[in-house]
Amino acid sequence: MPLSFFSERIEAAIADAVGMTQSGMPPAQLTSAVQYAAAPGGARIRPTILLSVAMACGDDQPAVTNAAGAALELIHCASLVHDDMPCFDDADMRRGKPTVHLAYSEPLALLTGDSLIVLAFDVLSRQSPDRALPLIRHLATRTGTPFGICAGQGWESESEINLSAYHRAKTGALFIAATQMGAIAAGQDPEPWEELGARIGEAFQVADDLRDALYDEVELGKPVGQDEIHNRPNAVTELGVDGAVSRLKDILGGAISSIPSCPGEASLAKMVQATAKKLIPSSKLNRVPGE
Amino acid sequence: MPLSFFSERIEAAIADAVGMTQSGMPPAQLTSAVQYAAAPGGARIRPTILLSVAMACGDDQPAVTNAAGAALELIHCASLVHDDMPCFDDADMRRGKPTVHLAYSEPLALLTGDSLIVLAFDVLSRQSPDRALPLIRHLATRTGTPFGICAGQGWESESEINLSAYHRAKTGALFIAATQMGAIAAGQDPEPWEELGARIGEAFQVADDLRDALYDEVELGKPVGQDEIHNRPNAVTELGVDGAVSRLKDILGGAISSIPSCPGEASLAKMVQATAKKLIPSSKLNRVPGE
Where is the signal peptide (chains A, B) (predicted)? Predict the structure, then answer.
């Protein structure tokens, strides 16, 4: 299945969701900011994984899968808008564009994040009840606290950090949501899918650490060296570039072998590898002379 | 039905919801801030209205009603935490205590608001599907944009304000949610209940304007004169104190006559009057010599 097939479904579903905020006589700036924050430009990795899992499980209700993918990406977009704000990373650029608080204002960035969170649950609430409710429950668990991305960010305010809980919540949570929501959207039990999501999350964390260390701001579309500035743990600092690349390959191998038995198991394995390749183009790694 | 009966149900339901954030090994500061933001001290007017409507409609599934009341109040608490932040009202005090960004930090206030929004939907997602989904849909509509409190705040960033859309979204939305969610929680059609919520919202707006003009900071538990500072429309500025009191009485009369026919119609009317009395104690008005 080519990646462009996923991309079209995902962008259409996100556009439908954002369209819900444009009815009636909405406040123009907030409406524009919500659209700006959810606009194409990101890798859409989480909904791509969600759709891949749903298709591997049969994808018998594509509208539910699309809504689930859109909802998950809206939560991710909300977290980026809030994380970029001055009281967190104070970032100027995101996806190659000015961040929402710079393009609009701080109040509008705060409201945009809030609106996107609410919109995610709104989108899911319009699906068939037997799948909508577990989708909402899983998305809420992986978004809020203690097991979601809010908790992940919250750990950064602690003097003593539980590293495993921190990484699992901050980066892992939305990947676990991706695999589990993909299964639920296709009418399957989400439990066997947790490990795949957790392992993809670990791989993504290591890949993110590599990009933070290897790329410059123009290539990455956002500030680099943020981990060093904010004194956050980083796999490249701990293992070096070669060590981090080796660790990434190990995690991906574990991820693929954790895929539960399902009709589309083989193509899902290929999908995970293709997604991993998008994270770190090998041309970039070849240009890095050792560590 | 004495107000203390509602109060006990509401506080227990909120405590149950907040308890969900305390399982496992949560980040301590965020967990504490969520509890602080949802702690008793507010009037709990919105869930009181929700429970009153549910009881007037038979309240045949009290657990659903309690969850709905808690979810609605959590959204209200979230909006207070975010509205108090430096980029909005920059308020020091709320409910007689330091605001969350002062008691904890700005990052934790942002995350606390986000976590409370997510928790509200999480709580509802655990109820029976036939009521949970419409509850989630109505709460999302009245929280996000274009018809919810996010849109209401968003209007304050516009150069030309649609006053009717602004008031209906900013103050009215969660009162409409209160009456409609009360009906849904009791298995009734929410549509006939929209007008009562909208009118209570208008009454609350006028009462809030009166308190902003008549009370001092210690009595109100938050800064006064905010409308004048932020150049927001205010009924006392437009109509004077006597005019605003008269307008408040008119709106309440309309609210009571809009109550749909239901088993508990008469006691609900009393409840609306009792709630109105809590908003502006008559002793305070008697001490104000005319305008």
Answer: none
**Residue B291 maps to a domain:** no
Percent of chain A having pLDDT more than 90? 70
User: Could you tell me if A137 lies within 8 Å of chain B, comparing CB atoms?
Assistant: yes
pLDDT per position as a tens digit, B175-211: 999 999 999 999 999 999 999 999 999 998 898 888 8
B85-90: Cβ within 8 A, 24+ apart: B85/A110, B85/B109, B85/B110, B87/A105, B87/A106, B87/A107, B87/A110, B88/A107, B88/A110, B88/B153, B89/B223, B89/B226, B89/B230
User: Which CATH number goes with the domain that contains B265?
Assistant: 1.10.600.10
The pLDDT tens digits for B18-38 are 999 999 889 999 999 999 999
Nearest to A126 among B115, B118, B137 (CB): B137
Q: Judged by CB atoms within 8 Å, which residues 150-179 of A form the interface with B? A: 150-151, 153-158, 162, 165
Task: Tell me, yes or no, whether B136 lies in a domain.
Answer: yes
B134 lies in some domain? yes
Q: Does A268 touch chain B (CB under 8 A)?
A: no
Instruction: Report the gap between the CA of B133 and the closest CA in chain A (Å).
Output: 6
**B3: its two tokens:** 């107000």
How close, in Å, is residue A173 to chain B by CA atoms? 14
Total number of domains constituting chain A: 1
Boundaries of domain holding A193 = 3-287
Distance from the A115 Cα atom to the nearest Cα atom in chain B, whole angstroms: 5
Q: Are A155 and A165 in contact (CB under 8 A)?
A: yes
Name which residue leads in pLDDT, B235 or A192.
Answer: A192
Residues of A in contact with B71 (CB under 8 A): none
Q: Given this model, what pLDDT does residue B290 score?
A: 37
- Asked if residue B164 belongs to a domain, the reply is yes
